[in-house]
Design a protein that fits this description.
Distance between the termini: 31 Å
Largest sheet: 4 strands, antiparallel
Radius of gyration: 16 Å
CATH topology of the largest domain: H-NOX domain
Number of domains: 2
CATH superfamily of the largest domain: H-NOX domain
Order of helices and strands: HEHEHHHHEEHEE
Helix content: 40-55%
CATH class of the largest domain: Alpha Beta
Low-confidence stretches: none
Structural class: alpha+beta
Strand order of the largest sheet: 3-4-6-5
Number of strands: 6
C-alpha cells in the first residue's frame, strides 16, 4: 500500500491537518545517526531538501511545532534513502519510545501502571501531536494484553501505522520490563475502519 515518495505525495501529506513536536524528528535523527552515521544523516537531509522539505535535524527545537505531514515524510525519506523494510521502521518506533525521556519520567513518577496507561498516556500523546486522540481502552495485567485506539480521523500513512504500533511496544516494554512484546493493528482507517486500534501483548 506504500506510495512512491514524490512531490504529489509530499503535497498531500503537507496538507494534512495537525502538528507534531520537534522531538519526533530528534528521534529520527538519533536513530539514523546510530545506524548510518553522519554520512547517512547527510544523505537524509539531501533527500528532504530535494523533496522541498529541508530539515536540519541537529537544530530542531524539541518543543517546536511542525506540520504533521512532515513527520510522515521524514519516515518515508528514511525508508527510501536507506532501503529500510517494514521491520526497520518498526525498530525505529521501538527505539523512539525506549529512548524517550518524557516516557521514562512519566513511567518512573507514577507507581500505578493503570494510572500511567489510562490517565497519563493520552496526555503524552497530546504533548507530541495536536491532532488525533489516544484512547486507552483495556489493560489486562493478568492476561498480559492491552488495547489502544487512535480516533478523530488520524489518517496519515500506512508507514506511520507500523511505526506507531512499535512505539506502543516500547512503551509497554518500559511499563512491564518485558522484552517479548508484539502488536497487531486490529482496526485501521486504511482498511476501511472508523479508527485505528492496536492490541499489544507481552510475556
Amino acid at each position: 500500500m506504500d506510495q512512491e515518495l514524490n512531490k504529489e505525495l509530499v503535497d498531500k501529506l503537507m496538507a494534512l491537518p495537525g502538528e507534531a513536536r520537534g522531538v519526533v524528528f530528534i528521534t529520527d535523527y538519533n536513530y539514523v545517526l546510530k545506524e548510518m552515521g553522519e554520512d547517512g544523516l547527510k544523505k537524509l537531509e539531501e533527500e528532504m531538501t530535494a523533496l522541498g522539505c529541508p530539515i536540519d535535524y541537529k537544530k530542531i527545537d524539541t518543543l517546536s511545532f511542525h506540520p504533521i505531514g512532515l513527520r510522515v515524510i521524514s519516515l518515508l525519506a528514511i525508508k527510501k534513502v536507506f532501503s529500510f523494510n517494514d521491520e526497520k521502521i518498526k525498530e525505529m518506533g521501538m527505539f523512539a519510545s525506549k529512548t524517550s525521556l518524557m516516557l521514562k519520567l512519566f513511567i518512573n513518577y507514577f507507581l500505578s501502571r493503570q494510572k500511567v496507561f489510562f490517565e497519563e498516556a493520552p496526555k503524552i500523546w497530546h504533548k507530541h501531536y495536536s491532532s488525533g486522540e489516544l484512547i486507552p481502552l483495556e489493560l489486562d495485567e493478568e492476561k498480559k494484553y492491552s488495547i489502544i485506539q487512535i480516533k478523530n480521523n488520524y489518517k496519515l500513512h500506512p508507514v506511520f501505522c507500523m511505526y506507531l504500533g512499535s512505539y506502543f511496544c516500547g512503551f509497554f516494554h518500559m511499563l512491564f520490563k518485558s522484552d517479548e512484546i508484539n502488536f497487531q493493528e486490529t482496526k485501521c482507517l486504511f482498511r476501511g475502519d472508523e479508527y485505528h486500534e492496536y492490541k499489544i501483548t507481552w510475556k
